[in-house]
Amino acid sequence: MCGIFGCILKDEKAAPVMHAALKRLEYRGYDSVGEATIYSDALYIKKDQGKIDEVHRIHDLDDLPGNIGVGHTRWATHGAPTQVNAHPHLDCNRQIAVVHNGIIDNFAELKSELENRDHIFKSRTDTEIIAHLIEDTLNTNPSLSLADAILETVRRLNGSYAIAVISTREPNKIVCARNESPLVIGINENSIYCASDIPAFLPRTNKVVIVNDGELVTLSLEGFEIRKIADSSTVARESKLIDWTPEMAVKQGYPHFMLKEIHEQPASLRNTLRIQEHYLELMATFPDRAREVFLVACGTSYHACLAGSYAFSKLAFLATYPVIGSEFVEQYGKSVNIDSTILAVSQSGETADTLAAVNIARQRAATILGLTNTIGSTLTRVSRVYLGQQSGPEIGVAATKTFTAQLSVLMQLALRLAKKRGKISQDEMDFLEEKLEKIPDNVETIIKTQEEKVKQIAKKYKDAKTFFFLGRGISTATAYEGRLKLMEIAYVPAIAFPAGESKHGPISLVEPGFPVVFICAKDESHKTLIGNIMEMKARGASTIAIVEEDDEEIKKLVDDYVEVPKGIPEVLSPIPFVVPLQLLAYYMAVERGHNPDMPRNLAKSVTVK
Ligand code: F6R
Fold first, then answer.
1. Does the pLDDT of residue 248 top 80, yes or no?
2. Which tens digit of pLDDT belongs to each residue from 396-406?
3. Around Cβ 552, how many Cβ atoms within 10 Å?
4. Which pLDDT band, with edges at 50, 70 and 90, does 76 fall under?
5. Ligand 1 and 179: CB distance under 6 A
6. How far apart are CA 63 and CA 98, in angstroms?
7. What separation in Å is there between the alpha carbon of 510 and the centre of ligand 1?
8. In this predicted model, what pLDDT tens digit does every residue of 536-589 receive, in sequence order?
9. What would you report as the CA-atom Rg of the chain, rounded to the nearest whole angstrom?
């Protein structure tokens, strides 16, 4: 997730307006910033790595001439946060400047095609190919308008994008286009804007046009023209007036970032499926060769590791050890060695306990692999190979979209490993890959159809003093995560454990009305789980189940249930099954009068440079 912005102003310099707009988009990404303007038929550009204020102190972002420009605030996915990788990106002749939010899946193929035609690339980003592809299209057919050249260009892109382009060839226009990344237009009497999000231009106009997927828009001071990318046909669309406050606008109308981020999961999960195949392949070679593999993380990321360890075992027949970061040094600090591989999982890439484990393992010559959401973080610097999970920044302190993304990457890795080790048939592989592709849609369905139900359940149980979360097999990890979410934001003490452990102690806590949440994935332990539900019911517990929609047997048994789509393979189940638990924690916090975005005593780790 990055923030893009563009503006054309009648009587004002564009740069200070862009600078202020990018500040308002900084929640979308903050590792680099850049602006490009056109003045007297020449392009001017300033960009660097760092937060906007830092870059402004060094480069003075307000000091660019011209009343038209595009700007960008970055959250790195392809290429580390460096000056050369910051947007805007230019073509060979410095006539075209492009800003982009999204991921171009086929950039490697397009890049080598363009390099064979003598285009020189400066960055390691996927975005730069767009500038060169527009240039190449115009070289081949110089009579094309800028908008038509961009139409041809975007038709060749696979992946997600919201782009804004300026060019000295048509210095009074911005051309922007959208596929699966947000893009909005703002209109005022003497100015026009495009941006990733409304807050960027809200102080200047509240007259807004939403751009849909598959559309290209040409902006000028005369107005805007929308065309369909597929067939170039023109689309008529009225503007509407937005009455959001700036605070509401940043959250896109959601009351809290946490709820916004829960709702972002279908999109963020689609992004995790865009990880380049060769990086997964490369990463999979290390666990395959290692004598022992540790999955090391803290908190929610540890729960992803726990689920990952089930998946590695079930799919790739590889035993891995999930270890809590703060325990690693005591437990394995002396035994870890050159034959060990450590896969550290950390959204921030900066969690001290995870890094301490990594440090000791490095000192003892183990191989370090990283999975993180923060390219440029310490974890990416110390890892032999790392994967970026591509979730975009998470503002809510409680991890939600970054958890499901970690799960998705770990499942993809487990599948690669299974293939490499010859432990999975092609049919099974195809089946699971197809199911994984559908997970974002499954999550979308859950949010659409079950949110209201979860809200009602939260109302019903809002005064409960304690909760149990129970699952078996891989659903144990889901149960742990449901418990952590509820504790950290709703301050409800909760206990989670594998359901089979009930009768070894915890069941003595149960008395009439005690809420017990069961995670009921359809796997081999389904029958046994029904036994555990019966045990709890017999003691008067109030039972709540997360079930597949056709699981009539369990639906009949329990007091309340939330449904997920049917046919989800067990190894993928933590992704959809955790979503109702995230919503439960959120609505319990709201019902109990707490701010879910700011849990007391907690803060998110941030990158230190
Ligand atoms: C819980 C939560 C924390 C983090 C943990 C690790 O919602 O956010 O438990 O998961 O602090 O953080 P990272 O993944 O940044 O290492």
1. no
2. 889 999 999 99
3. 10
4. confident
5. no
6. 20
7. 30
8. 999 999 999 999 999 999 999 999 999 999 999 999 999 999 999 999 999 999
9. 25
Q: Does the annotation count 10 as an active-site position?
A: no
Residue with tokens 């796997």, as numbered in its chain: 523
The C-alpha atoms of residue 384 and residue 395 are separated, in whole angstroms, by: 28
What's the gap in Å between 487 CA and the centre of ligand 1? 14
What's the CA gap between 374 and 390, in Å, rounded? 8
Residue 438's Cβ-count burial label (10 Å; 0-12, 13-18, 19+) is: middle
Q: Is the peptide bond before 246 cis (omega within 30 degrees of 0)?
A: no
Give, using CA atoms, the residue closest to atom 11 of ligand 1.
299
Q: Is 261 in the pocket of ligand 1 (CB under 6 A)?
A: no
Number of H helices, E strands in the chain: 19, 25
Out of 350, 605, 607, give the residue to mutate to test ligand 1, the one with the largest number of ligand atoms within 8 Å of its CB.
605
Q: Is pLDDT of 608 > 50?
A: no
Q: Is 2 a catalytic residue?
A: yes
pLDDT confidence of residue 251: 84
Taking CA atoms only, the protein residue closest to ligand 1 atom 7 is 398
User: Which listed residue (453, 462, 604, 609) is catalytic?
Assistant: 604
pLDDT class for 604, splitting at 50, 70, 90? Answer: low
Whether the model clears a pTM of 0.70, i.e. scores above it, the answer is yes
Report the residue among 347, 354, 407 best suited for mutation to probe ligand 1: largest number of ligand atoms under 8 A from its CB: 347
